[in-house]
Design goal:
Blueprint (H helix, E strand, L loop, with lengths): L1 E2 L2 E2 L4 H12 L2 H13 L3 H29 L3 H8 L8 H31 L8 H12 L3 H19 L2 H27 L5 H9 L8 H14 L6 H6 L8 H29 L10 H10 L5 H35 L3 H21 L14 H28 L2 H9 L7 H26 L4
Helix pairs in contact: 1-8, 1-12, 1-14, 2-10, 2-12, 3-9, 3-10, 3-12, 3-16, 3-17, 3-18, 5-7, 5-14, 5-15, 5-16, 6-13, 7-14, 7-15, 8-12, 8-14, 9-12, 10-16, 10-18, 13-14, 14-15, 16-18
Bound molecules: phenylalanine.
């Protein structure tokens, strides 16, 4: 299907699979458990859910409205909706955030590749939780291996991305996402039978409000935005490939629902194992890689399951990274009239450079600190907790206050103009008031501005 010279996603399934493919990734399976672990479990989950459904879903709709209405890259979208106005600056926030995230994310995706390889060999015969724990530490700090896998992973992104939207992005997502769901459910069943299951579930689901600090709230907000791929124009870019018949509100809810579901499944897989094997829930970015192998080495057919799991995690990562990269690829091709090949090479090239720095920040660059954080942690913190919510706030103010109400109504309701205007009012209220005020308050307290 062609709309002028721009492609569109071919099928309804394709729209869901690519959007969910972008949302579901390491953010759910790696980042959610580690953030929840560091920030006290249940209360973090509850605040995360608030940000996903009350703040996130309306802002997702706002990105969809802008993207589908303009059918353009993030910069072009704001230029056509608010020519000559400062709103367009949000595109540069989005492009910066996408490159920073692509860089550190690729390091973790590289770990999944190494762990796929190690799974095949049964982790070199090491089966004790302590041994597997040390094995990861040694690996992550070893420089060469992690850098090579980061570059290999980014090269794989290049190969998919040059093929374009329908053939590359959509085809991959249609096959991979359903497979991932099935395998997660198998692992959940297994984790629930572990001796530490009750304690793990209690940690994940029983909110302990004494652990809630402004920092916890800031991190939960960052996690919600990160996990929904929200606030950086990724959903503007993807929805510019939607057809007119794609139902936006329903797509937003399906994405948020499945995204949350996968994060909770990941929590149910990880925390029982953390408590069963006497590990520390607050281990940070290494948590999943240190805990999961212990689970696999504890069950029958461990080599098979482990290989399958890390390979699927790699695939889930790539459906997310291609959506990050697509933001600047669409920007470079449409704004500078570069070929798709050149734009892709440029985006991936920058990410390869920054990604190498992130990979080394666990090893020989671990002395290099930005605001007291390693490069990897700084990229993660600054993009997720600051750039994405700032971007989301600007997008929400723009659609809530500036954008013509007729456009909002047409995009959200399509041909069903008369019904559901109530829902439109709720979404507009969230965009005008609720989202900007909540995000603003979290910044004021979470960053200690007061
Ligand atoms: N949402 C993705 C995940 O959870 C990460 C992502 C962030 C993707 C920003 C695109 C843009 O893994």
């Amino acid at each position: 299907m062609n709309n002028g010279q721009r492609t569109q996603f071919a099928t309804r399934l394709g729209v869901i699979a690519t959007t969910v493919g972008s949302a579901v990734g390491l953010g759910n399976i790696w980042r959610f458990p580690y953030e929840a672990g560091v920030h006290g479990g249940g209360a973090f989950l509850l605040i995360d859910l608030f940000f996903i459904f009350i703040i996130g879903v309306p802002v997702v709709c706002a990105e969809f409205i802008i993207g589908r209405h303009t059918g353009s890259n993030i910069r072009g979208a704001f230029r056509s909706l608010a020519p000559g106005k400062a709103w367009g600056w949000v595109s540069y926030i989005g492009i910066t955030a996408s490159i920073l995230i692509l860089s550190f994310y690729s390091v973790v995706a590289g770990w999944t590749l190494e762990y796929t390889r190690r799974s095949v060999s049964g982790f070199g015969g090491i089966t004790t939780p302590e041994g597997l724990h040390d094995q990861f530490d040694t690996y992550a700090s070893s420089d060469i291996g992690p850098v090579i896998w980061t570059l290999v992973f980014l090269a794989a992104n290049y190969i998919i991305l040059v093929r374009g939207v329908q053939k590359g992005i959509e085809k991959m997502s249609n096959i991979l996402m359903p497979m991932l769901f099935i395998i997660l459910i198998i692992f959940v069943a297994n984790s629930l039978m572990m001796p530490g299951a009750a304690e793990g579930l209690k940690f994940l689901f029983m909110p302990d409000f004494s652990k809630v600090t402004p920092t916890v709230v800031l991190s939960a907000m960052g996690q919600a935005f990160f996990s929904l791929s929200l606030g950086l124009g990724c959903l503007i870019t993807y929805s510019s490939y939607f057809t007119k018949s794609t139902p936006l509100v329903r797509t937003a809810f399906i994405t948020a629902g499945l995204d949350t579901f996968v994060a909770i499944l990941a929590g149910i897989i990880i925390f029982p194992a953390v408590f069963t094997f006497g590990q520390e829930p607050a281990a940070g970015p290494k948590l999943v890689f240190e805990v999961l192998p212990s689970i696999f080495m504890h069950i029958g057919g461990g080599v098979f399951w482990s290989t399958l799991f890390f390979f699927l995690l790699f695939l889930a990562s790539i459906t997310s990274t291609i959506s990050m990269a697509e933001i600047s690829i669409a920007y470079f091709t449409e704004e500078f009239r570069l070929s798709r090949r050149t734009s892709t090479a440029l985006t991936i090239g920058i990410a390869m450079f920054l990604g190498t720095l992130c990979a080394l920040s666990f090893g020989s660059l671990n002395w290099l600190k930005v605001f007291g954080m390693t490069i990897f942690n700084f990229f993660d913190y600054f993009s997720s907790n600051i750039l994405l919510p700032v971007g989301g706030m600007i997008i929400s103010l723009f659609v809530g206050w500036i954008l013509d109400r007729g456009i909002i109504r047409r995009e959200l309701l399509g041909s069903r103009q008369i019904r559901n205007t109530f829902n439109v009012s709720i979404i507009v209220f969230c965009l005008r008031w609720l989202a900007p005020v909540c995000i603003g308050l979290v910044f004021i307290f979470g960053l200690g501005i007061f």
